[in-house]
Specification:
- By secondary structure, the chain is mainly α.
- The chain has one domain: MetI-like (MetI-like fold, Orthogonal Bundle).
- The chain has nine helices and no strands.
- The model has no long low-confidence stretch (mean pLDDT about 85).
- The longest helix is centred in the C-terminal third of the chain and has 33 residues.
- Helix content is about 85%, strand content about 0%.
- Helix 2 packs antiparallel against helix 8, helix 6 packs antiparallel against helix 7 and helix 7 runs antiparallel to helix 9.
- The N and C termini lie far apart (about 55 Å).
């Protein structure tokens, strides 16, 4: 297959399946929905774990550390398989959808990485800020929420943005369970056309446009936060 033929097939597949059959918008919708769920719950859980690791209660610190190390030390695809088969058994919900199982697994995986990002951001804030807040009569919790975390967010925003972009790309793993994301469309269209390379090139363009657009938006947000600081 020549390069010209690949380009022609890419265009034909784009028009017939991605536009004509609506697979592009459906795939992007599921990809962004799964990414948003993952980042939202991953950020919340990651923040709680980052704060929990600063606790003086050693058993809690041990559990959080073990959780983070296990998730960071095992493949994401393996975690998806475990979630798909094990989570319904644990929750006693045999009819749990593949999308829900994948979303839970990806949220936990993201939380492990986000917790380390936030922990490093908190540690980057000068300890004198906390000491000054405590000297003014603020409790440790209030000092963390009002003084430390707002400064940490400005420090870790680029890293959190990179995590969001990484999550968008990692949603491709969810296609293993046919959850409707962009990568799932490859398997569907390939079953009709057997045109592997043109479909993959189309997908490469779609993913690039998504991640590039997001990186520019995050860069704009970062610059605005710096101006307000």
């Amino acid at each position: 297959m020549t390069f010209t033929e690949i380009l022609t097939n890419m265009w034909d597949i784009f028009i017939k399946y991605y536009i004509g059959a609506g697979m592009l918008w459906s795939g992007i919708g599921y990809t962004l929905l799964l990414s948003a769920i993952t980042v939202f719950f991953g950020t919340i859980l990651g923040s709680l774990m980052a704060i929990g690791k600063r606790s003086r209660f050693k058993p809690l610190v041990f559990v959080i550390t073990a959780f983070v190390e296990v998730l960071r030390g095992t493949p994401a695809l393996l975690q998806l398989y475990v979630a798909y088969f094990i989570i319904p058994m644990i929750l006693k919900v045999p009819g749990l959808s593949p999308f829900t199982s994948v979303a839970i697994a990806m949220s936990l995986n993201s939380a492990a990485y986000v917790s380390e990002i936030i922990r490093s951001g908190i540690q980057a804030v000068d300890k004198g800020q906390t000491e000054a807040a405590r000297a003014l009569g603020l409790t440790g919790r209030t000092a963390m929420l009002k003084i430390v975390l707002p400064q940490a967010v400005r420090n870790i925003l680029p890293a959190l943005g990179n995590e969001f972009i990484t999550v968008i790309k990692e949603t491709a793993l969810a296609s293993t369970f046919f959850v409707g994301d962009l990568m799932t469309t490859y398997k569907v269209i390939n079953g009709f056309t057997y045109q592997t390379i043109p479909i993959l090139f189309d997908l490469a363009i779609f993913y690039f446009v998504l991640t590039f657009s997001l990186s520019k938006l995050l860069g704009l947000l970062e610059r605005r936060m710096k101006k307000r600081a």
